[in-house]
Amino acid sequence: MNQQDLIAWSRRALADARSVVVLTGAGISAESGIPTFRGGMQALWKSFDPQTLATPEAFARDPATVTEWYDWRRLKCREALPNPGHVALAELERRVVSRGGSFTLLTQNVDRLHQRAGSSSVTELHGNIMHWRCAATHRSVDPPDGPIPEYPWPSPHHPKAFVRPSVVWFGEALPSDALEIAHRAALAADLFMSVGTSAVVFPAAQFIELAAQTGARTIELNLEPTPISSRVDASIRGLAGDILPRII
Length: 248
Ligand SMILES: NC(=O)c1ccc[n+]([C@@H]2O[C@H](COP(=O)([O-])OP(=O)(O)OC[C@H]3O[C@@H](n4cnc5c(N)ncnc54)[C@H](O)[C@@H]3O)[C@@H](O)[C@H]2O)c1
Hints:
The chain is built from 10 helices and 8 strands.
């Protein structure tokens, strides 16, 4: 099928579906000016190794650099605006729910742009960068509107601890409640769509396989081929902000 046919097929599949699950990755926010980790032109960690910054070990070794890096990203996410891809998914949720169906949006993103676009059923698999907490007690600490005044940021709740972003670092477990929601939604889905994710970050990438095994129709939207491209019903190449409004 050519791109036009794939879009038409996806539009019909979405219109027929009663239980819709969408998984998004960094690609959907790229057009909002938030760089992705891998692939694409402005890979966020081109000059930094993600493993050296996004791990509990890095935070223990060099909390100042890790905090400054995340605070820079937090401010970048605050400045960004939702793009037509985020807006289209919020509209899809309204339509599916208004016809009595169920809709689940799973995101690997930490930027909160789905919520700002109007999506209400968002499950954050990797936490969110706007929420920070004491690394020792896990109690919330609200970051200021502007930059955090001190890197690292001493915790007000523990004399020896620093404050950290509530994101999931490499080597940390995903939140169990989010995993449970994702698992149940994937099993119940009759349509599963993956948007702007390189599909190499597990276990999130497994959900589309799970949905396919239980009979869901599957759609992938990405700029490039990924490990799941050959296994989905419709693999569409293009910009999320261009294609999603056309499908939805
Ligand atoms: N916006 C954010 O919150 C943000 C940004 C960067 C990284 N992350 C983190 O990245 C990790 C997961 O990796 P990932 O797979 O989501 O991202 P990734 O960086 O590994 O891959 C992004 C994918 O999006 C595709 N892509 C880029 N621009 C696109 C566009 N305009 N339309 C469609 N597809 C596009 C790329 O081809 C690539 O496959 C998570 O830990 C997540 O928390 C989040």
